[in-house]
Design goal:
The protein folds into 2 domains: 45-157, PAS domain (Beta-Lactamase, 2-Layer Sandwich); 171-396, 4-Layer Sandwich (Phosphatase 2c, domain 1). Helix content is 32%, strand content 27%. It has helices spanning 4-16, 32-43, 68-74, 78-81, 96-107, 153-173, 225-244, 249-259, 347-360, 369-380, and strands at residues 48-53, 63-66, 112-119, 125-136, 142-151, 184-191, 200-208, 214-224, 267-274, 280-286, 291-294, 300-303, 322-325, 331-335, 389-396. The strands form 3 sheets. It has a 5-stranded antiparallel sheet with strand order 2-1-5-4-3. Strands 6-15-14-11-12 form a 5-stranded antiparallel sheet. It is elongated.
Length: 397
């Protein structure tokens, strides 16, 4: 760590562009040649470098030295700010929370790194990233601070554009609100494995067919993140359009399977179809975990078909949907494998666990399904989710 005495010598060298005078009281920890080299390196650095005193209270800390890169960055001449505070760079959009953290870090003896909007001399805002470290005196207390600053505006704008792109993808691809279906209470939830982008390969959907049949879907595309989400959108909207046009679920799955032959995409899907009378549930699954029907007596029934998952070169066969009566109060549960599967738990064991949970802790007649589906995910999925999770519950009124 550079001592305060060395800082004085280095500062003088930076100001004068000449080697500092030798110290007479002791051999310097830094040799004159090294101090001269450091002075030149700082003076000609492409990054803005500022040295200040250690007074954190206004009007400090006062500028001791600023290099030419600082002048180019801010529009201020160094001699305009020497002896004054860098608070001149702050303005209406400067994040107070960042400044508070800066002070907290320096008072605690920690180096600081942050980014905030500052203002050039002509009033133009820019995003400045900077790193600050203390210069210690003989007793270890700070006698000044060294700040390295860079213009991060371009990187910040690029990041903002990326976030806007992700927001647009979320709006277009992420599951929407739970479908509204006459005669049914429907609740749905989606939990991505990637909390940062919130994008993944799972989805749920609701489609009203021309004959009044309500189709509820849960699907799962292999992979995570933005790429999986983009592939998911292709499967989701293709199935949505086919079912909305009146295609039977088995036929719709066959058409989507043919669309996937020229790709490297794989997906699974469960389609829950409830005819207009709402007294029956028909299920078609393609490579997907079974749909669970929870009766008011606590019994559970697994409904599935033997269709292969959707993807290139996967075979298709016509099957008869799995059907069961749907009585008042019965609950249908469709979900992706993120709800039941773990590295240490197979899908079969996970489905058995789900059925036991539904039987042991079913929703009460007065309990809204919105809250119940969230509690179901919390009960079966820990905080460190390994996969995306989507689930749809429907209860006959």
């Amino acid at each position: 760590m550079i001592s305060s005495a060395d800082l004085v010598r280095l500062t003088r060298a930076l100001r004068d562009h000449q080697p500092p005078s030798p110290r007479l009281d002791a051999a310097p920890p830094l040799g004159d040649e090294l101090v001269r080299s450091l002075a030149q390196a700082v003076h000609f650095s492409r990054s803005s470098v500022v040295l200040t005193d250690a007074d954190l209270d206004a009007p400090g800390p006062r500028v001791v030295y600023a290099n030419p890169a600082f002048e180019a960055l801010t529009g201020y001449r160094a001699d305009e700010l020497v002896g004054t505070s860098l608070r001149a760079l702050q303005g209406p959009a400067t994040d107070r929370a960042v400044l508070d953290r800066l002070r907290d870090d320096l008072e605690a003896g920690r180096p600081f790194e942050g980014r905030a909007i500052n203002y050039r001399k002509d009033g133009t805002p820019f995003v400045m990233s900077w790193r600050i470290a203390a210069v210690a005196g003989p007793d270890g207390a700070p006698t000044g601070y060294v700040a390295i600053q860079d213009d991060a505006t371009r990187a910040w704008l690029a990041q903002l554009h990326q976030h806007e792109t992700i927001d647009a993808l979320q709006s277009a691809l992420l599951p929407a609100a739970a479908p509204v279906v006459a005669g049914l209470e429907v609740a749905a939830t989606y939990r991505p494995a990637d909390d940062r982008s919130r994008l993944g390969g799972d989805w749920y959907d609701g489609v009203d067919a021309p004959d009044g049949t309500a189709h509820l879907l849960v699907g799962d595309v292999t992979g995570h993140g933005t790429v999986a989400a983009a592939h998911m959108g292709q499967f989701r909207w293709a199935l949505n359009a086919l079912l909305a046009s009146g295609q039977a679920p088995v036929d719709a799955v066959g058409h989507v399977r043919r669309l996937a032959r020229g790709t490297e995409m794989f997906a699974t899907v469960a389609i829950v179809s409830i005819p207009p009378g709402r007294d029956r549930v028909d299920v078609v699954t393609a490579g997907h975990p079974p749909v669970i029907l929870l009766g008011t007596d606590g019994s559970t029934t697994a409904l599935s078909t033997d269709l292969a998952l959707l993807g290139p070169a996967t075979p298709h066969a016509d099957v008869v949907p799995a059907s069961a009566p749907l009585r008042p109060g019965d609950v249908v549960c469709a979900y992706s494998d993120g709800l039941v599967e773990r590295r240490d738990r197979s899908t079969i064991d996970g489905v058995a666990l789900l059925r036991r949970h539904l039987s042991a802790a079913p929703p009460t007649p007065a309990e809204p399904l919105d809250g119940y589906v969230d509690s179901l995910v919390r009960a079966l999925v820990d905080d460190q989710a390994e996969d995306d999770t989507a689930a749809v519950l429907a209860r006959r009124a």
